[in-house]
Amino acid sequence: MASGSSTGVMPTGGRIFSTVPDIFFIPEFVFGGLVWILVASTRIEAPNPLGWVMFVSVFCFVGTTLWFFIFLCGANQSSIWPGLDTGFHFVAIVFYLSASVILAFSTLVAAANLEAAGVAGLPTDLLLKNYRLDISAVVMSYLATLLYFLHAIFSALRWKSS
Fold it and tell me: Which parts of the sequence belong to the MARVEL domain (predicted)?
């Protein structure tokens, strides 16, 4: 008969800085926070859909922070946590991918507005600054999507092996 003791597959404490899926927490903080900051620093026009992008970046940043502290404190040792970890990161992928597409579309609209203002001879300094911030936010948003995707894949593999 098998022994009653089992080792948890979910890391705790400082081990989260050395395991493959959990090492993505720090870059997710960085790129998710950068998306939040870059989108928040741009001037938003009235019909702009960046509210969803802000919601996603704040939701994922807060969710990742809570998830990180749960893992750090070791409260993730029951058998349900590998599935929850995979589920959270899958939701983050769907949210960030939708937000990234919306942000990229808004940046294309901003490029058209910048070009139209330049042709009309209007001052473009503020438009150019916002356009550059939007480009940076798009790049960071897709990088955050990639990081959440990698985290979800490795979390699913860990879930499958548990």
Answer: 16-160
